[in-house]
Amino acid sequence: MNGVLVIDKPQGLSSHDVVNRVRRILGQRAVGHVGTLDPAATGVLPLVVGSFTRLAQFYSHSTKCYEGIIRFGFSTTTYDAEGERTSEPRAVDLTPDEIRATGQKFVGCIEQMPPPFSAKKIAGVPAYKLARKKKDVVLKPVPVEIKEFLILDAAGDRARFRATVGSGTYMRSVAHDLGQMLGCGAHLAELRRTAVAEFTIDQACTLEALDTSMRQGSVVELFVHPRKLIPQLPSVTATEQDVALIRYGRAVNLPEMSRSPQVKVFYGQRELIAIATRIAGTLFHAGIVLLPSAPVPPRAA
Fold first, then answer.
1. Catalytic annotation, pick one of 8, 17, 38, 211
2. Which one of 54, 91, 164, 255 has the fewest CB atoms closer than 10 angstroms to its CB?
């Protein structure tokens, strides 16, 4: 079983927890996730299954979209609702325009301090492990890009937002830093991821729906159509002879006219068999082969 699934991750499970559940449901070990999602967050978690785990490299720097709620009045150790308070709760008297104006300061390429409870490593140890032991967590700011950060509405001590960000951006840090700038403290109260790269919440299924579909024998219907994967690469269709050559790791001539350095190679409409790199002209080499390994051909007598 090979392909990409988009799971609507429930609150309370880590991304690795979801991977383990899907492994058990599918009865398949080769399952990985694209883009970690905090246990407290919900939403889009793309999973690569079978030989398609080799495609994860194309999603390591993907743009992500979020919706959520920021609560003002106090900050926390984790920068979200799961942590302990680090400041005394205080009354909040902020206008939506004031929050929006301050929020716009985060848009663009900025330096962001990761949360102490994060997977960032310090001397090879994840920061959250040190933080849990009450040890000093010394992190450095990292460059991130926030393409969009919109305050949709605000009332009382809460503001609802929508954001589009580059890889490595922590929305928990955005919430915390916004509270610092406004002088009242804040933390991320709710977070839902609505998109990762080309994968959207409309494509997502729950773990329960996946389990039901597996039992009913219709699980293939939940996989993303391979033609929709890695849309930045053009698609070409291989002949049976091409497939045989690709299986043995040999270069092939493919009918590709856009001069793209890489292409997706299909056999028929649905079977994605390789990602090939141009050598010269129409000659390509399949560096990523998604077909089963071929038997070693016998030596000539």
1. 38
2. 91
